[in-house]
Amino acid sequence: MSVVLSTASLSAADRRERWHHAVSRTFIPLDVQLLEDDPSPGTIVSNQLGSLRISQVQAGPQTVTRSSRLIRDGKQHLILTLQQRGSAIKEQDGRQARIGPGDFSLSDSSRQFRKTVGSDFAFTSFHFPRTELHVRDEDLRAVTATAFSGHEGSAALVATYFARLAREAPGLDAFVGRQFAAAALDLLALLINERRGHLASQAPEPAAATLVRVKDYILRHLSDPGLSPPDIAAAHFMSVRYLHKLFQLEGATVGEWIRTQRLERCRRDLLRSPALGYGVAAVARRWGFVSPSHFSRAFRAAYGVTPREWQTYGLSGDGRNGAHDGRNGGEDRRNAGEREGTPPQTGSLHRSSPTSPTMGASCPTPRPVRPPSSPHSRP
Predict the structure, then answer these.
(1) What gap in Å lies between CA 34 and CA 41, rounded to an integer?
(2) Percentage helix, strand, coil, to 5, in the chain?
(3) CB atoms within 10 A of CB 232
(4) What is the largest CA-CA distance in the chain?
(5) Grouped pLDDT means (10 residues each) for the chain, 379 residues
(6) Is this structure's pTM higher than 0.85?
(7) What Cα–Cα distance (Å) separates residue 335 from each residue in 99, 119, 149, 209, 277?
């Protein structure tokens, strides 16, 4: 269900404070400076697809700033903004870019940034945890405050997908929505890697082709708990040393890559497992984990929540509601893992919905306890 935040019913004198509250609540804490003596009405219509919050925003001229003071909140989120009306000036990481209608850009909440729009505007934003975008930190830093043209090339394909996803979001089933959201972030990661030149061959073609065959072999044998570098190397008539050299192209060891693929498949299966009648241990065994305790530790290290929490709640919000720290103990902790806190409060801003006069509260979601540069950055 869409959630609507609007200052249209407020007096011009009240709009300034309430709009600041709306912007910071929808995205991340931001300083907002409205550039009109009598602020225009502002509206934010939001939908949640898994970890991805999609917000359609319309308002008058303003500047929003993520200052060093606000960065202390520790939020590690990214915001993709697809401009529809008006032009914005984005500043981050020593760059400044003009974002025109049809263009999109990225902002990283872990560092200072500023965005100024000098006229009435409309844009759609896509707000998600940094851990959901699988690109290297240095590559992300290189593309913030950069205008991606939505009119040509690969960026146009990405812009079209994100725009269509925003239009269809209100009617998507929760499970289907999560899958489409994940596909959107995969497309964005592909675009960033292309822009950074990582999709060009970095090794002689025979080595690159061999790596593809090795990966295919690994994926077909993920369920084998005995899968090991010596076995993989032997199956391809190569030395273990050469196998490790191939995976240096990925910036990971063979073992890390295997663990990443297993955890990703477990993560997906855990969302479907209640309907299929699988328990956590069965899902872990299916993808080659022998020890339930080892699987639980690896899963939590990668995603910040236990497998049981993920199976119970999925990823239905923006991560603002953390799980209890386990100090309350009891049967719930033994049987269902750490439990979530209460949903976020609705706040004081006027809210409405196309189908209901009040804001709906989404299902609680696990919050990562530490923000790695990627969910797969550790073995």
Answers:
(1) 11
(2) 40, 20, 40
(3) 19
(4) 75
(5) 85 86 88 91 94 95 93 87 96 95 96 95 96 92 95 92 96 92 92 83 65 90 92 89 87 92 92 77 93 94 92 56 36 36 35 34 38 39
(6) no
(7) 50, 55, 50, 46, 16
